Each structure stands twice: as structure tokens, then as C-alpha cells.
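Hi R.,

Here's the chain you asked about this morning:
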Amino acid sequence: MCQELVSKTATEPYCLYYGFSFHGNQVHCLEGSGEGLLAHLSNVASLLQDTRKIAALIRLEVHGVDEELAKLVSPLSDFKPTYITLHYGIRRAQGLYYTARQARGA
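And the predicted structure, written out as C-alpha cells:
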């Protein structure tokens, strides 16, 4: 399922980064940009429905600058996310996916 989501997401023009990490029986998904998140949810809607048949959403955190978070409040209201304001940071997105794949030997 994760590979299907990654493949479908790879075509999204607003996607700054996207990936999955695992801790025990929990899967964490990382997505970047407000408009990108909304486009992504539309793009993978059918896959998300399939995912929710086999897994429960236990928490949704949305991290970003206030301007990006404001774009998401109404569209994400059904998910009841926790919004966390980003104040400082850097993200070098180019090549991140491939670096993560190489690190795990894929």
C-alpha cells in the first residue's frame, strides 16, 4: 500500500517531500506544503479509503507555518488534526526520497 501511495504521489507538482516511517505497528506519513496536502488528499482519495479499511487513523498532526496551516483548517476539519506551528527549520527536499531508499538498501 505504501509503494502505491508513493508512486501516485510522485506525479504531484506541489509535493515537496513524501514518505513513510514505521515504529512497531504504527505507520507515519510525512507530506509537505498546504496546497500540496490538499491536492494530495484528492489524488489518493481511493487509496486512503482502502487504507482506512485495514488501519485506524489514531492521530493526525499538521506541522507548518501559520499561513499554510490556515489553508487547511476547514478542508481537514473532519480529520480533527492537531495543528503545530513551525517557527524555525530547514528542509532540503531534492533527493530526500532517494537518499532514504539508499539508506535502507532498496
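The radius of gyration is 14 Å.

Let me know if you need anything else.
M.
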